[in-house]
Write a structure and sequence with these properties.
Elements lengths: L1 H11 L2 H23 L7 H12 L12 H37 L11 E4 L3 H12 L6 E5 L7 H4 L2 E4 L5 H6 L7 E4 L7 H18 L4 E6 L5 H7 L3 E4 H13 L6 H11 E7 L9 H9 L4 E7 L2 E4 L12 E7 L3
Keywords: Ion channel, Ion transport, Membrane, Transmembrane, Transmembrane helix, Transport
Organism: Gracilibacillus boraciitolerans JCM 21714
InterPro entries: K_chnl_dom (IPR013099), NAD(P)-bd_dom_sf (IPR036291), RCK_N (IPR003148), Trk_Ktr_HKT_K-transport (IPR050721)
Amino acid sequence: MIWNKWTQFYFHLPIFLRLLFSVCLLMLLFGYLIHIIEPNHFPTTFDGIWWAFVTGSTVGYGDYVPLSFVGKFVGILLILAGGGLVTFYMATVSAGTIKHEKNLTEGKISYKGSNHTILIGWNERTKQLIQMFKEHHLQTDTVLIDHTLNKVSYQNHRIHFIHGQPTSDEILKKANIEQATFIIITADPSLTEEEADRQTILNIIAARGNNSNVHIISEILTEVQRKNAIRAGSNVILRSNNFMSSLLYQSLFQKDIQIIDIIAKTLEEQQFCTKLIDDHLLEHEFYYCAQHYLHDGKWLIGLIREGEMILHPSFSLKTQKDDKLIYLKAMAE
């Protein structure tokens, strides 16, 4: 009964561990055997084990050599059995390493970490986002889910790639969505705006169904689907079309200034933040609060009051309890 349990346990181990266990067991057996046969030349069991590993791995230092006929015959058996087993073990480890690297590149390996960020969709926006993660040394692992790519090099992008549909529970579990902190869903550029928004909403539903607490940021292209994205469970909705239209409109009146470059530079180097107002700033004018934040290298640009965003308010506006201050700070902070 016990033997059957050990046999089942052994054959359920990964092949690398099975081979390593077999090599060690074989070397221990031959080491003990040579110690029993030639106790004068191999005074301890460890000396015999050392000789077995050196001989079986075909290193052959020659510091211990069997002298008797029986000892030499044991050595021949060790070379035939142990040498082949060690060689097979090394070849299996090498092949397994190459296969694992290939599977990792092709998105077949599950992610085992936690508190990570999941990106859905491979496009210029996600590429730039990953680059910003690198430049600003964001302390989070990044997992990419995409069904259009065949492979992504981990060495080049420092991301864990999962190949498959982001609406599949199996694929989301491979990305360990249950322990993810953020999910960023971008619009599929290969689809029409209506189709891309429908796909985004399906992705939101699948993600929210697998993790009710994860913070979901999604890109929606059409206004009509904005409310549906919120109903589906998205925490933040980004309207990229509205943003670009506003930039183009601003550019009409700024012929000598590259307004888009200015805004892009600001977004790259500065971070928008919100913070519940501190008690010592209550009932003070906005100008006073702005001066206070400037001392800390932060640029106060507005506040959120009763769900309404107020940008660049009057300097004489007095703060109230539960106000959230909106400010810019350098990315490096």
